[in-house]
Design goal:
The protein has helices at 2-6, 9-22, 116-137, 205-213, 216-227, and strands at residues 36-45, 50-58, 61-69, 73-81, 86-90, 99-103, 108-112, 173-174, 181-182, 190-191, 201-202. The chain starts with a helix and ends in a 22-residue tail after the last helix. The protein is built from five helices and eleven strands, in the order ααβββββββαββββαα. It is a peripheral membrane protein.
């Protein structure tokens, strides 16, 4: 079906509409062989609070952005290559239901659909697109994923020293390696994580020690597995402590 739609006028027109919705600030999306599979509004668990985002699933990329005018205009376009994506279902808890993790080497975050059926359809379509891409390219699935950030609301004190209380003066920071909410003194060091940034990024003292001794892999794998079972997850972002209202989301 994807091959049949690839060069159709209907597909070209649909992609053009998506491009126009993002305006001049968005990247061009029309390339040979690209097909728009589906679109919809998902709730993205951002650093401060869950927010509605418009998502577009193509056969090779996942695009999302802020909703400016419902179903008409979007901004702050994000493009995620699907061949680097893996997804994990999240258990329902409270008001956070029908969710899953979208994990990539550069960014990992949780999204939630309105219904269980919608969640199933999104996950099935994403997995099918990823599988087809890897099959065509002969590549293996990525085994490196950025940490899912712990939301600010989940930490009233530093998750490392367990002492520093967060206030308007004593700000929260996020370790780019483990995703923990930490205080400034516990996250003064920086480390180069090539998959996330070309420059050294903020990490906590605990992760710095593990990275420096080469003992980080096992720890990171265990932590990601635990987040796959918990809905209390947030976005991962390469910029330093930006609010999710800004261009880095």
């Amino acid at each position: 079906m994807v091959d049949r739609l690839a060069n159709s006028e209907a597909n070209t027109r649909r992609i053009s509409i998506v491009e126009n919705c993002f305006g001049a600030a968005g990247q061009p999306l029309t390339i040979p062989g690209r097909v728009l599979i589906g679109e919809g509004v998902l709730t993205k668990l951002c650093r401060k609070k869950p927010k509605a985002r418009q998502f577009f699933l193509f056969n090779d990329i996942l695009v999302y952005g802020n909703i400016v005018i419902q179903k008409k205009k979007y901004n702050k376009q994000h493009i995620i290559p699907l061949e680097n994506v893996t997804i994990d279902s999240i258990q329902d808890e409270g008001d956070l239901r029908n969710g899953w993790l979208i994990k990539t080497p550069t960014k990992s975050f949780a999204v939630y659909a309105a219904t269980a059926t919608e969640k199933s359809e999104w996950m099935n379509h994403i997995n099918k697109c990823v599988s087809d891409l890897l099959s065509k390219s002969g590549k293996t699935p990525s085994n490196e994923h950025a940490a899912v950030w712990v939301p600010d609301s989940e930490a009233t004190v530093c998750m490392r020293c367990q002492k520093a209380k967060f206030t308007p003066v004593n700000r929260r920071h996020h370790c780019r390696k483990c995703g923990f909410v930490v205080c400034g003194p516990c996250s003064e060091k920086r480390f180069l994580l090539p998959s996330q940034s070309s420059k050294p990024v903020r990490i906590c003292d605990f992760c710095y020690d593990l990275l420096s001794t080469g003992e980080m892999t096992a720890c990171q794998s265990t932590r990601l597995d635990s987040y796959s079972q918990s809905p209390k997850s947030s976005l991962n972002d390469v910029s330093d402590d930006d609010d999710d209202e800004d261009s880095s989301d």
